[in-house]
Amino acid sequence: MRFYIVTPSFNQINYLKRCVASIRDQAINRLELHHEVIDGASTDGTVQWLKREDVPHVSESDAGMYEALNKGIDRMGADGAHQSKAIFAWLNADEQYLPGTLKAVADYFSEHPEADILCGDALVLDESSELITYWKSLPLRRAYLRTGTLYNLTCAMFFRARVFASGLRFDQQLKAVADLVLMDQLLAQGAKSACLSRYLAAYTYAVDNISNQRHAIEERVSYLRSQSLGQRMLIHPLARACRAGERLMRGTRRQMFPLTYEVYTSDLTRRTPLTSAHVPAQWPSRSSRGEN
What we know:
Elements: E1 2-9, H1 13-24, E2 32-39, H2 46-52, E3 57-59, H3 65-78, E4 86-90, E5 95-97, H4 101-111, E6 117-125, E7 131-135, H5 142-145, E8 157-160, H6 178-188, E9 193-204, H7 214-225, H8 229-250, E10 259-263, E11 272-276
């Protein structure tokens, strides 16, 4: 099974080094793995570092993350990876895979040939790599997505390359919710979603994450307004209630503590083990993190 992983990046060299390390050490499982960085013409030494470390990359100006991801998907196709056993994923520069992730994903897809999209669990860390919360996945459902929330973290999502064979791509006109829109479109064309109850990745929550920016809120509002009033007033509340009920039944708010995890920090030669005594099962807000 071949993995094709894309990392969009722009002036994030310190995070990028950790991201790359977290992918490289997955190769110990003898997986066929191609990782490529799609860089937006960084000026912080990223390109020089990528060349020095022999990391496959492209560096040129682009319109943002979604154009970079589209480039990655297209390059995967050019590389002959559009086959049922090829797996595509993207890992942003401020994210990391946890130990054994790709082996676990490969095993799942091998045992479940009907699955097109696999969603796993993820840890949410602060900029010092301390645990803020944990986020457990649910199957992707169109009714849930159309309430305006991509409720699984993309760092723990994996796709069979075949889902992109129809030509579906990210909407490059969007800056924050194109991933939500694409998931809706993939499900509409018949892609089947599944969940793996295992922590696969770590996501760094920061004030300047795209999801925290004003245009992200505006795009989400615009997406909701594109739907009928009946959907927004009747179907959406029901979908939210069903999603909450499914979370309850699946136990996504429960976690045994202490929780130990291993990520790359300043030492890029090995993962640093960290332990959290307890964190709440809720998404962090700017106010809860002491930010204005």
